[in-house]
From TrEMBL, chain A:
<feature type="transmembrane region" description="Helical">
    <location>
        <begin position="12"/>
        <end position="31"/>
    </location>
</feature>
<feature type="transmembrane region" description="Helical">
    <location>
        <begin position="71"/>
        <end position="92"/>
    </location>
</feature>
<keyword id="KW-1133">Transmembrane helix</keyword>
<feature type="transmembrane region" description="Helical">
    <location>
        <begin position="140"/>
        <end position="159"/>
    </location>
</feature>
<feature type="transmembrane region" description="Helical">
    <location>
        <begin position="104"/>
        <end position="128"/>
    </location>
</feature>
<keyword id="KW-0812">Transmembrane</keyword>
<dbReference type="Pfam" id="PF04143">
    <property type="entry name" value="Sulf_transp"/>
</dbReference>
Automatic annotation (TrEMBL), chain B:
<keyword id="KW-1003">Cell membrane</keyword>
<keyword id="KW-0997">Cell inner membrane</keyword>
<protein>
    <submittedName>
        <fullName>YeeE/YedE family protein</fullName>
    </submittedName>
</protein>
<feature type="transmembrane region" description="Helical">
    <location>
        <begin position="103"/>
        <end position="122"/>
    </location>
</feature>
<keyword id="KW-1133">Transmembrane helix</keyword>
<keyword id="KW-0813">Transport</keyword>
<feature type="transmembrane region" description="Helical">
    <location>
        <begin position="73"/>
        <end position="91"/>
    </location>
</feature>
Automatic annotation (TrEMBL), chain C:
<keyword id="KW-0808">Transferase</keyword>
<feature type="domain" description="UPF0033">
    <location>
        <begin position="6"/>
        <end position="30"/>
    </location>
</feature>
<protein>
    <submittedName>
        <fullName>TusA-related sulfurtransferase</fullName>
    </submittedName>
</protein>
<dbReference type="InterPro" id="IPR001455">
    <property type="entry name" value="TusA-like"/>
</dbReference>
<dbReference type="InterPro" id="IPR036868">
    <property type="entry name" value="TusA-like_sf"/>
</dbReference>
<dbReference type="GO" id="GO:0016740">
    <property type="term" value="F:transferase activity"/>
</dbReference>
<dbReference type="Pfam" id="PF01206">
    <property type="entry name" value="TusA"/>
</dbReference>
Amino acid sequence: MSINSAFHSQRKWNIGFILFLTLLLLLLSQISIRLTLITALGISLGFVLQKSRFCLVSALRDPILIGMTQLTRAFLLLLGISILGFALVSWGASQSNIPLSLNIFPMGVHTVVGGLLFGIGMVLAGGCSTGIIIRIGEGFAMQMLAFFGLAVGSVLGERSLKSWRYTFGEWPGIFLPDIFGWVPTLILELIVLLTLWQLARWWQKKQLGE
Amino acid sequence: MKKTLQTIIHGPWAYWIGAIILGLLNILVLIVRRQPWGVTWNIEIWAEWIGTNLGVLSDRGFTFEGLMAASGTYLNLGLLLGAFWATLVASQVRFRPIRDKKFFFSALIGGLLMGYGARIAYGCNVGALLNGIASSSLTGWIFAFAVFLGTWLGSKLLLKYLM
Amino acid sequence: MTRFSIDIWGEMCPIPLIKAKKKLSSMQCGDILVLETEHSCTSRGIVVWAKANRYIIEEKEVANGIWHLELTKTHD
């Protein structure tokens, strides 16, 4: 096999693309600073997700199929950072009366059914909805098709949500700090994450040891 | 120094480094957007708008102006551009076609299931799982458990039909 | 010391790794398994897995976005 003969630098294209991104952000900044910031954050998220090969499907699936939990533990770390950060931000927002909405969604049978379908779907499609967008950026035709499926499926889901609610009912979402208070909730959540982390580590050792 | 820069540009980065940066970015999105990062709802409203314009869906009142003002549009666009850029800086851009018929079906079916599941549960891995849990919502933890079970079922299907 | 290779071209994660594991179990110590993929995550996943298993792994980019992997089975 020939080594390195088919490798061409894409540096010129890269410079062109950086110019394009800069122009895009400059143009957007004339319309809305907020949207410019959000676009920049989106680009950073996409960049980091691709560069670190972060994949939420892999984090949930590989412990089952391969016995590897490195990515699972990284995901738990991401959860821990997010929990603490969200708590800090929402505390700060309430101190200075800035409106802020968190993702406290109502729950019902459809939460569980939706999660199950989502879990099955993401293993088959080779990426969750974020992962699919990342992989389209990498040039995968398979995920472009999956994206089409995702768009159609999401319309079907949104339009049948009413009947799920009507048939099985729905309960308002529970914001854990409302029940336990902020500090105990954070401690509880971090203990759960740490336990899962230890469990994941033990699981990988056990799987590799065989 | 040059080698470090090379690693940063070329990657891949360690998973835990990715996790820390993603965590910080996730928090920044919450600060700027005043609402956590989410992916599928925006895809759904674009699909509604396209479907309405093609005449296959009843109008639920989504306008082009409304979509262009939605922050989710810019997050998703940014994700796509960012991922492409990350591939480009490492000179790894190429078109990767589907090389086996089985993946044609699995992608389509998987996508459909995922879209449907995400919308009846109010979110995907990011909106409902990561940021549901990050918001200290009980629903997030329940959803996470359901997704994990779903992944297990999906793995069984993968071993049976895709291997 | 024999060189084996399996066809994982175009396969989605985690099928390449499952196939590689299967092939590896039928190989002798010192044998080399050659793999080639265009999936960035697949290549990364195999490298991380091989390192965790203390196998020798070499990763090379042979063309834009194509990774060539050589895994040496160092132990049973």
